[in-house]
Design goal:
Blueprint: E1 16-18, E2 21-23, E3 27-29, H1 38-47, E4 51-58, H2 59-63, H3 67-72, E5 83-87, H4 91-103, E6 109-114, H5 119-122, H6 134-146, E7 153-158, E8 160-162, E9 165-166, H7 168-177, E10 182-186, H8 200-209, E11 215-218, H9 224-234, E12 238-241, H10 251-259, H11 270-288, H12 290-305, H13 311-318, H14 324-332
Helix pairs in contact: 1-10, 1-11, 4-6, 6-7, 9-10, 11-12, 11-14, 12-13
The protein binds flavin mononucleotide.
Flavin mononucleotide binds at residues 30-33, 35, 55-56, 85, 113, 115, 156, 186, 218-221, 241-244, 350-351, 383-385.
């Protein structure tokens, strides 16, 4: 999807209706485990994201009121709308988790994760394995919507397990039929993980199949023009951006500009990147405490400096800091004037290469009409989509 389209017609895309919520611009920060916590969301929101989704929260851990889970399920006072992604495999547990979130007034939108490709999840019939069982998927969606008290519930999907087991079209129909407010497609199979190019044509196919609710496209938006290109090529109603904004949250400013019909601002110089790093680290320190916050900042430091000259040296210094004062010291050593290297825009960030053979429970493919939830073990918190 790397081709840039200079003929992209900007400003032609309206806000997205997510139930009663308005997402403007129709540009969403993708749920990313270990990344899209309240600090990162607030940064992306400030740069112009229309909606920012939490990292994946496990339904059972939420019901058990796990302390860490509750922290990650928290929102900043200014966050609006509050959008949370839930992971679960059991209709009852998921329904109860949605009821808890809604009953306690904790969220304004719930996204259901049916795309997790992680082995220890699919091997037990969770994540991307669930849409293989349409009756189970339907029961889960029905339970979540029934307990939602009217707030929008959406589904996030992959195309299927692998090229021989595509599930997204039927899953999209189920989402629509069960009253979901939107469906997002990461246009890869679970077997493909994050490798190769996303199959945007699948987004177009889903859009042709699902008529009454918005379809959001996801996969390989690294520059603002990619989003316009995806909207035009697929007819999708909005875009979801993951890896492209890692170490580049200002991508949302560029996206907001092109969706408003303006040319995107150029990326910041290294001095500008340093200012965003400071802001991000301070938000993390505030949310997690200084030490834990700066520990979680390390991976971001790697992404922020990626592709710049001397990035290895900068990274080595930045990942050693454990206080905000030390961070300021390390940043002071870095030259402000360096321009953002154009080649850095399309460098892989976060997950990238490798494919897999998707592990499923023994005999799983022989009982696809079954609608019983997989065993409890599948509810362990994991990351991915
Ligand atoms: C570090 C990381 C963590 C992720 N965690 C989740 C998650 O918790 N839930 C989910 O639905 N998708 C998750 N994803 C997948 C993204 O939401 C998105 O679908 C995927 O990265 C493709 O979009 P992109 O090409 O814009 O990155 C994760 C991706 C990355 C890179």
């Amino acid at each position: 999807m790397g081709t840039r389209v200079s003929e992209a017609r900007p400003g032609a895309f309206p806000a997205l209706a997510l139930g009663a919520l308005r997402v403007d611009p129709p540009v969403v920060l993708a749920p990313m485990a270990g990344v899209t916590n309240a600090p990162f969301r607030s940064l992306c929101r400030r740069f112009g994201a229309g909606l920012t989704v939490s990292e994946m929260i496990t339904a059972r851990a939420l019901l058990e009121r796990n302390r860490k889970t509750l922290q990650l399920a928290g929102f900043g006072p200014e966050e609006q709308p509050r959008s949370l992604q839930l992971y679960g495999v059991d209709p009852q547990t998921l329904g109860e988790a949605v009821a808890l979130l809604v009953g306690e007034g904790r969220v304004d939108h719930v996204d259901l994760n049916f795309g997790c490709p992680v082995r220890k999840v699919t091997r037990r019939g969770g994540g991307a394995a669930i849409p293989l069982k349409p009756r189970l998927l339907r029961k889960i969606a029905r339970a979540a919507v029934a307990c939602s008290g009217g707030i929008p519930v959406s589904m996030k999907l992959r195309m299927g397990i692998d090229a021989s087991h595509l599930t997204y079209l039927e899953a999209g129909r189920i989402a629509e039929g069960e009253g979901c407010a939107a469906v997002t497609l990461h246009a890869r199979t679970a077997a493909e993980l994050y490798a190769g190019e996303a199959h945007w044509e699948a987004i177009a196919r889903l859009k042709a199949e699902v008529h009454s609710i918005p379809v959001l496209g996801n996969g390989d938006i690294l520059e603002a023009q990619d989003a316009l290109h995806m909207m035009q090529r697929t007819g999708c109603d909005g875009v979801v951006v993951g890896r492209g904004c890692l170490g580049r949250p200002w991508l949302f400013r560029e996206l907001a500009a092109v969706f408003a019909g303006r040319p995107p601002e150029p990326p910041p110089t290294l001095g500008g990147v340093k200012a965003v790093m400071s802001e991000h680290a301070a938000l993390l320190a505030d949310f997690f405490g200084e030490r834990a916050g700066l520990r979680s900042f390390r991976k971001h430091a790697t992404w922020y400096t990626k592709g710049f000259p001397h990035s290895a040296r900068m990274r080595a210094a930045l990942i050693q800091v454990s206080t905000l004062t030390e961070l300021q010291g390390a940043l002071a050593e870095i030259d402000d004037r360096v321009r953002f290297p154009p080649a850095a825009l399309r460098l892989p960030r976060g997950k990238s290469s490798g494919t897999q053979r998707v592990a499923l429970p023994e005999g799983y493919l022989e009982e696809l009409e079954d609608d019983t939830a997989p065993a409890r073990e599948a509810l362990e918190p994991v990351s991915g989509g």
